[in-house]
């Protein structure tokens, strides 16, 4: 009888050990999954996508105040930014040691001359104003003509809501260098999904 009880106790102990091992294995498995997910999320947001909140209405009607947008960091890996692209970039007038991100539309490319006369934008000495179908309303006339010469490897940015946009026209450093462009905006995902072009 004593042997039988001892045998039952040993069986109980043996049966309990696998449960403990199974729980620990399950726990370690979950930790691995969570760590892998965190590493993937970090890699995505560091090297592939940029997530940005739009605090102002400077890009209305293309992007509304409060929208959240996704940009693709690899858009310009094999090609150059183009006129009309909406991009996330480091604001060139940010205080020393700070990085502030803006979202605007590329108007001027490297080597372009830009003249803003009255309510119109003119490129490279053209007599015809730049066609800008993305604008919601005409720009208020500038009191004096503005002239800009975009340096090589730099871009001139403007908001789509020209009358309420702090953009390259008003900045101390008018141009955004190529390496300050973080990503091309692809779409808005909050509060509703829509493609950005």
Automatic annotation (TrEMBL):
Residues 28-189 form the Peptidase S26 domain. GO terms for cellular component: plasma membrane. Keywords: Hydrolase, Membrane, Protease, Transmembrane, Transmembrane helix. It holds the Pfam family Peptidase_S26. The chain crosses the membrane at residues 27-50. It is an enzyme of class 3 (hydrolase). It comes from the Bacteria. It is found in: Cell membrane; Membrane. Its EC number is 3.4.21.89. One of its GO terms (molecular function) is signal peptidase activity. It catalyses: Cleavage of hydrophobic, N-terminal signal or leader sequences from secreted and periplasmic proteins. Signal peptide: none annotated. It is a single-pass type II membrane protein. Belongs to the peptidase S26 family. PANTHER family: CHLOROPLAST PROCESSING PEPTIDASE, SIGNAL PEPTIDASE I. This is Signal peptidase I.
């Amino acid at each position: 009888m004593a042997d039988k009880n001892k045998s039952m106790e040993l069986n109980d102990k043996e049966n309990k050990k696998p449960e403990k091992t199974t729980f620990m294995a399950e726990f370690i498995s979950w930790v691995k999954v969570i760590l892998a997910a965190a590493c993937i999320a970090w890699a995505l947001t560091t090297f592939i996508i940029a997530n940005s909140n739009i605090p102002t209405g400077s890009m209305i009607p293309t992007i509304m105040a409060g929208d959240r947008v996704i940009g693709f960091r690899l858009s310009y890996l094999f090609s150059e930014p183009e006129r009309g692209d909406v991009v996330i970039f480091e604001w060139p007038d940010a205080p020393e040691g700070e990085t502030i991100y803006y979202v605007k539309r590329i108007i001027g490319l490297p080597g372009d001359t830009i003249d803003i006369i009255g309510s119109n934008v003119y490129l490279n000495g053209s007599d015809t104003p730049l066609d800008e179908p993305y604008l919601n309303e005409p720009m208020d006339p500038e009191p004096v003509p503005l002239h800009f010469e975009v340096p090589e490897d730099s871009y001139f940015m403007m908001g789509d809501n020209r009358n309420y946009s702090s953009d390259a026209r008003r900045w101390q450093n008018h141009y955004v260098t190529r390496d300050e462009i973080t990503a091309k905006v692809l779409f808005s995902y909050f509060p509703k999904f829509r493609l950005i072009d």
